[in-house]
User: Fold Co-chaperone DjlA N-terminal domain-containing protein from Sulfitobacter mediterraneus.
Amino acid sequence: MFADFIKRLTQPDPAPLPDDDARLALTALLVRIARSDNDYAASESRLIDQIVMQRYGLDAEGASALRSDAETLETEAPDTVRFTRAIKDAVAYENRLAVIEALWQVVLADGSRSDEENALLRLVASLLGITDTDSAMARKRIENAPN
Assistant:
């Protein structure tokens, strides 16, 4: 279903993604981190919906549809290294930094951080060109945010 999208995204020197495609790719990263501990909880999918509703101004139906498409894309996307590097080349820095913050929301949603989630988030942040300091500051903002 997303073969052309993935091919466009992973070609050498991809063009910047249009907003809708960037939303889809970044939401697929949220799904990937939620699935990384092999426990894709309903609370995580609800949180992803909330994140994309807030970030992209979607209603509940639009958020659910975007997440559903992102779940499909995530299963078809190449390994995390190639997928994330492709996103780095096609998405502006401020959007990549915002997705790190959203990834921390997903990781922290169930009240525990697994080694798999920590490792994947460190890898994704690095591949997106986000410094450890910026990622740690994003995590602190999420941890200190009112529930």
Q: What stands out?
A: Residues 19-144 form a domain with the TerB-like fold (CATH 1.10.3680.10). Helices lie at 3-10, 19-35, 42-56, 60-76, 80-90, 93-108, 115-127, 132-144.
